[in-house]
Amino acid sequence: MAPQSLFESFNARSLEPEQVGRGFIFSPAFVDVAARSNSVVLGPRGSGKTTLLKMLTLPALRNWWPRDRSKEVQRLITELDFVSIYVPSDFTWYPDFRRPIKTQPPKDTDDLLSYSLFRSHVLLAICDTVSYMADPSLKNDRHLAKFSIPLDNELEDKAAKLLGAGWGLTLTVGGYYGLRSAVTSRIRAIQHLLTVTAMKPLEASSLIADHPYLSATFFDDLREFGNVFEHVYGRRQKWAACFDELEIAPDPVKMPIWQSGRSFDPRFLIKISASPYDEGLTELLQPQMPMVAHDFLEIDLSSQPRREVDRFSQRMFTKLCNEVGISPIKAELLLGPSFYDDGFDPDVDGPVNEAGATLQSSVRRGQGGRLAPDGFYNRKFQGLASKDPSFVSYLAKRNIDPRGMAALPEFQKASLIRKIISTVIVRDEFLFQHQLENNEAGRSRRFRARKSVSRIYTGAFSLFALCEGNPRWIIGLFRPLIAELVQVRDISAVKAISRAEQTKRIERTIAAFLTLLSTLRASHRDQPAKSIIELVEQLGDFCFEQVLGEEFNPEPILSFTIDRSVGKEVYSAVGRAINQGALVLVPQKALRRGHTEEVSSAPGNIWGKRVRLSFLLAPRYRLPLVLGRSVDLSPVLRSNPPVQSASEQLILGDLFSTSERANI
Amino acid sequence: MISHSNLYTFAESKTHHYDVFINSIGYEERAAALVKANRIVAGRFISLSFEDNEVLSFAENRKVMEAVSALLVTDVSEFFRTKFRSFVFEIYQTAGRPISIGIDVSSMNRTMAALALSAMFACKDFIDEFEVLYVPAKFSEPTLTFTPIDQVGAVIPELSGFDSEPALPVALILGLGYEYGTAVGLINQLEPNFTLCLRATGGDEKYDDAVRAANLQFDFNPYNVEISEYELFDLKAAYDHIENIVYSLVPSYRVVMVPMGPKILAALLVLIALKYFGKVAVWRVARPGQAAQVTPDKSYVGAHVKTNGAIGQEHTYSLRKMIEMGQLA
């Protein structure tokens, strides 16, 4: 078998907790997750939710904290006073996978068996947790020794017997090993029942009559465990039941977990990871809708501050380099500056000079550099002015000569440039001057025919922005780039990863992402829904027109508020797009004042929230990497029907076709 | 399990003799190609008929099979669960010896193939051996569309992996065809610890190139995916290769197999799943699609399977009980 890949190194689901701990990159979100409160971690796929929850397990903590001696980490680990019972998600929760397509047993049978399967996985998680606590090496950990339990066969047997009896299990072997074996046998029995019910219809009542354990609840099991632990080990212990990927849990499981924040046992904290959108959860939870802000501390991974994205991405980049044996190196040195940086020139590979890539030199040269007469900003302004009469007109109305930027007062320069530079860069990149037939210099709005992603999206910090701090995207984008370097014989001679390679990689990553989105079901619970791809294309085309339209637009609309007028089909598509990361939720505090739409804080609900297209898709639709202005979503969709109808399927050749966006 | 396999061509005059021959009637031209070309000599014919998409070559195929007095079966599950055993028993009694069966999987869907192959082992008291036949499609340039996955599920309940160890991580074995998006979608959904993608070789090179292009040069970043090849025209080698891999995975993983791509892979994976009965799952993916003509290639392959000793007695018993259980549905 091939050595563990980097994806394995970072895919928390497939890793043992100690491996997660060894590879963990600390983020401020973890402080919130580890707090002594119920919490819910929200974020799209690949954003790191599982990692954060799994990090709360004893083996993960034990393998992590000695590697990070920062005060914040030391304080966190010292103050931690609960033991986590981590319940991973499992595809078997969904009976669909065990049944042939089109078979449909009675719903109550399905619900009963799904619930029981989930419950059994909770029991398995409890067994794993006590094993971690009984691990002799835990006693040697300065901070975590307080959670250890004595390695005592008699106590273990006693606890196992009591739990076995409480959980309705028959133990053939003693101790926690025997308990665990009994639980896995129970799971296999339920799997068998699921298969049987796929072949012959069985009523839930008859199943319960034959298998009484099917009626037990996992919260009772947790309570029982808490009681047995106290009785056997003679101490009161605080626990955190951590339920991962709750959005894929069966419906009968979701409701009690979401409601547990209010009413469950005070010895237990409840920690959940879930996607931001959960279809049908609102309906499921009525009328006892828990208010997330009251019952759970919400930790939203959907959109991180840029500073945090850069920091996290840089650290992941370093780990990727380590993985292939390259000495840790700053990303800017290998990937070059981006249009966030001084000295950015998309036609130059690598840093302009080494000094130019450092933060200190960037600050030192900062204002002088960018705003100098031959600096990057002035070049962009002048470049666009030479081909875009609407931009010239915009500047003229403000009495600004594009050739005289250096003469402007500092405050006016900074304010103007900060406001419009992203749009200027994109328009300058994609518009070009067109020579008319009679040789008269003319200007028309045409687009450079480009077969691939533009280089303005390359460079370290642009690539970080595209990845949105999503570990999976970071790996997908950067790993092949770094792996290329390993092929080179003399790594010390390698200066940079070329921009051509970077654009190729961006294109491939976007293509893979769009193909993934296109495979997602366009309907849920047999209700038709708009396809995610169609939605994304509509919004992308709208934003394209905002930035590259006839008239220069200093404040393009690049984000949308999910208003109540969007239909169910669209609402579902938006939600699913958020869950996949194609649309990104804008943090509440970024909302403008005076926004009247009521923002829902109910779990799984996205009404009133603001979204933007993921920056990963910016190269496809030629957009700047900014938030932009916001409008309600429904009028945008009404006034911008899809270019490609729903019946015309996306094909591979569409992904970077120039035909639909050229020559407008 | 596969004792030997052979490569044949339509140009040869070779005929195949069986007591029973099973194929499917669909819209693909290759569905009845072997019978139409007079390659099959059989005492009895069974044709599994699709319930919809009676277009393209469907009528022609039906005519060919009616001409040999084939038993046309529309409810395939019901037939194999309730009638097939008595059907073969009757032939066995008349013949006074175990019987031989030929199964042409070329145009079967994965469920039909799974039911037919499972039934061979459930009735192994009467069936000595069977031959799996496959007529590859003549290459035609695919339209690489991305279609949503409607549903994913076990190909038949018996092959749902019901006895797999729940605490083990998942290993996914995917057959590759033109459905890159589906492969990525499944990997994204399941997040297996390990994925092996199988691609067919040995056939038309244009097919190899088309599969490579359809799967973005086999770039499955950032997922942990290995690519392996199997011989399309050497089924014994293909089976042995894949079965060796599954053998090494089963102790440490819950193995889930999704045979996209050539239909013969579905048959091979079903045979492997029957060998590891209960431990290994075989899934199929439902996607919207349109009927498209499939013309037969000039060659076809056959794999001989002896039923005795192929799967353990205990598994045979369990399999038979489960198939019979479906009778009560």
Protein described:
The complex is a heterodimer of chains A (664) and B (329). Chain A is α/β, with parallel strands linked by helices and 664 residues long. Chain A is built from 27 helices and 13 strands. Chain A has helices spanning 6-10, 17-23, 28-33, 49-54, 58-64, 71-79, 107-134, 153-167, 175-199, 204-210, 218-233, 251-263, 281-285, 292-295, 306-323, 331-335, 359-371, 376-385, 389-397, 410-430, 460-467, 471-487, 499-519, 532-548, 568-580, 618-621, 633-639, and strands at residues 39-42, 83-87, 239-243, 268-274, 297-300, 434-435, 441-442, 523-524, 527-528, 557-561, 583-585, 610-613, 629-632. Chain A has a 5-stranded parallel sheet. In chain A, strands 11-12-10-13 form a 4-stranded mixed sheet. In chain A, helix 15 (306-323) runs parallel beside helix 22 (471-487) and helix 18 packs across helix 20. Chain B is of the alpha/beta class and 329 residues long. Chain B has 9 helices and 13 strands. Chain B has helices at 33-36, 58-67, 76-95, 110-122, 180-190, 205-214, 235-249, 263-275, 313-325, and strands at residues 2-9, 16-25, 40-49, 71-73, 99-104, 127-134, 151-154, 170-175, 194-201, 225-231, 254-258, 280-286, 299-306. Chain B has a 7-stranded mixed sheet with strand order 1-13-6-5-2-3-4. In chain B, strands 7-12-11-8-9-10 form a 6-stranded mixed sheet, with helices on both faces. In chain B, strand 5, helix 4 (110-122) and strand 6 form a beta-alpha-beta unit. In chain B, helix 3 (76-95) runs parallel beside helix 4, helix 4 (110-122) packs parallel to helix 8 and helix 4 (110-122) packs across helix 9. The longest helix of chain B has 20 residues, at 76-95. The two termini of chain B are 31 Å apart. The model of chain B has no long low-confidence stretch (mean pLDDT 89). Classes of the chains: A alpha/beta (664), B alpha/beta (329). At the A-B interface, helix 1, helix 7, helix 9, helix 22 and helix 23 of A face strand 7, helix 5 and strand 12 of B.
